[in-house]
Amino acid sequence: MSIEAAGDRSLYWRVQLGRNHGARGLFAVVVLFLLLYAYLFPGLLTVEGFSKFSQTWFPLALTAMAQALLMLTGGISLAIGATVSLGAVIAAVTMTQTFGVAGGIAAVLATGLAVGALSGFVVVRLRLPAIIVTLASSFIIGGAALLVLPRPGGAIPPWFSTLLAGDTPVALGLLALIVLAWKLYLATPLGLTIYAAGENPVGAFRSGAPLDAARISAFAISGALSTLAGLFIAAQTGSGDPVIGQAFTLNSIAAAVLGGVGFLGGQGSMRGALAGSLLLAVMINVMFFLGLPPVAQYIAQGLIIVGAVALPHLAGRWRSA
């Protein structure tokens, strides 16, 4: 191995460690909660039990990735929940029509890409705050979901629901493919610009990086991930619900922040956001098996989130003092 190659590899790992600085404690917490969950529910260690758990985690993992992608560029989205709902109703009204499941998947993906790209275009070209644009978008997209399907209904072909939400870990396989696609995307010029857009936009602009295209692309991909989460939820329930995605907006932000993704952009990693979403999914199941009432579950969930975010910062201050 040449000295230059060794230096490049060393720099790569230093960058990776820096991006995961806020999530190191989280990884340990996730492992502890997984062990506790396996102790409380030994069925988790079976293929069926693991498949069901991965299905409950999958939609939150997708929305956490969608939110983290925007936060890495210095943005944020308050429209993820509404976009999830839109994806669910479009899947439910198209998959039993002329073009079948393939046509439904294409419609869901195209809608997510178009909705996200339009929001990104408004944010980038009009120089408006992402939080304001996506807040307004959430009302528009939510209204569109109600126009498509005013009440829960529609249908998903049973064989497709069984494929995605049956007793096999298809959801985990899909998540692995999406993570692989993310890694490949990071190697493209647009992917390389994502961190620069959030960390040092002025420097990236002066170096000729495609900042605007990277940001609009990030919004488009975020929209596609959100509508795919809605498609999966529709497959789980066998129908579409125009308001089923509401909880995903705040949960996706919580998962990204838990994973060490900063609000100012350029800080954190996708693996951290996935770990944050995994912790949220495991916490819900652990508290259920502990028999905690719903109110206590919300309080405990909030305290654990605050603790998981605050402890690494407090430890850093203690070390630097």
From TrEMBL:
Keywords: Cell inner membrane, Cell membrane, Membrane, Transmembrane, Transmembrane helix, Transport
Chloroplast as UniProt keyword: no
InterPro entries for the chain: ABC_transp_permease
Major location (coarse): membrane
Membrane topology: Multi-pass membrane protein
Transmembrane regions: 26-47, 68-93, 99-124, 131-150, 170-195, 216-235, 247-266, 273-292, 298-316
CDD domains: TM_PBP1_transp_AraH_like
Places the protein is found: Cell membrane
Source superkingdom: Bacteria
Function statement: Part of the ABC transporter complex LsrABCD involved in autoinducer 2 (AI-2) import. Probably responsible for the translocation of the substrate across the membrane.
Subunit structure: The complex is composed of two ATP-binding proteins (LsrA), two transmembrane proteins (LsrC and LsrD) and a solute-binding protein (LsrB).
Full protein name: Autoinducer 2 import system permease protein LsrD
